[in-house]
Design goal:
Elements: H1 23-30, H2 37-45, H3 54-65, H4 76-79, H5 87-108, H6 117-128, E1 135-141, E2 147-155, H7 165-174, E3 179-185, H8 195-210, E4 214-221, E5 226-228, H9 234-242
Parallel strand pairs: 3-4
Antiparallel strand pairs: 1-2, 1-3, 4-5
Helix pairs in contact: 2-3, 5-6, 8-9
């Protein structure tokens, strides 16, 4: 029996590990699905730091942020709190996470005519539910009610986004879009529209109506939930007010 004092440890450097234990070689030999989250992060991180391998850094990231999904939208400064993570490594990690989010959105993306708020939410949920600050998007529709462009119009704070009516309508005019859908996220997860949300939407519906443009909906994205102004009857209410 080997005494505990005789037990040998691998050196911190991954290049000194047995080949089958190295994340990159393991992925190429057996496929990415066999790697742990820490090992996948290690491939992005590439190199460790004094006393810590890239896998150690991957584990530290997961310990700090709890999950891969929770790293989405995290400020760069929080990543830098982990010793050994510099700009290049952080950029690689954030780029990979963003690609994952966009892949999820592509998988959910609909093709053809937009028929309901659920069509829009399936597309936007992976992109917006984990953002730490509010982001306002405009989905521009063509004459056949197909989305042909998505524009980020304003990025606000953790609890407020404040695009102007003029700014939103200028985007529609620039792209010659006859109709649009508005969307923004609530980082708190609570999808109930604020009074400011209602006021902005009402002003936009009225101004758009005067310019012979249509706003079909305003969708608020939360934590796996959403609120649709159209589903709640508010868009119709604002349109009726606009023609009085």
């Amino acid at each position: 029996m080997i005494e505990k004092s005789e037990t040998k440890k691998y050196p911190a450097s991954i290049r000194n590990w047995p080949e089958d234990d190295r994340p990159r070689e393991k992925l190429l030999k057996h496929g990415e699905h066999v790697l742990s989250n820490a090992e996948l992060l290690a491939i992005l991180i590439r190199t460790g730091t004094t006393g810590k391998s890239a896998v150690d850094l991957g584990r530290e990231l997961l310990n700090k942020f709890k999950s891969l999904r929770s790293m989405s939208g995290i400020d760069v400064s929080e990543f830098k709190e982990i010793n050994g993570l510099k700009d290049a490594k952080i950029a690689q990690i954030k780029a990979a996470i963003e690609l994952g989010r966009r892949m999820m959105s592509e998988e959910k993306a609909f093709h053809g005519v937009v028929k309901s708020s659920s069509d829009v939410v399936d597309f936007l949920m992976p992109l917006m539910r984990d953002l730490k600050k509010e982001l306002f998007k405009i989905l521009l529709l063509d004459k056949g009610n197909r989305i042909f462009e998505v524009i980020d119009i304003d990025k606000g704070t953790v609890d407020r986004v404040n695009p102007s009516v003029r700014e939103v309508l200028m985007v529609a005019l620039k792209y010659q879009s006859p109709a649009m859908i508005l969307a923004h996220n609530h980082p708190s997860g609570n999808t109930a529209p604020s009074e400011a949300d209602k006021r902005l939407t009402k002003d936009l519906v009225k101004a758009a109506s005067a310019m012979e443009l249509r706003i079909f909906d305003h969708v608020i994205i939360g934590e796996n939930s959403y609120c649709s102004f159209a589903d709640e009857g508010l868009i119709e209410e604002y349109e009726i007010e606009a023609i009085k």
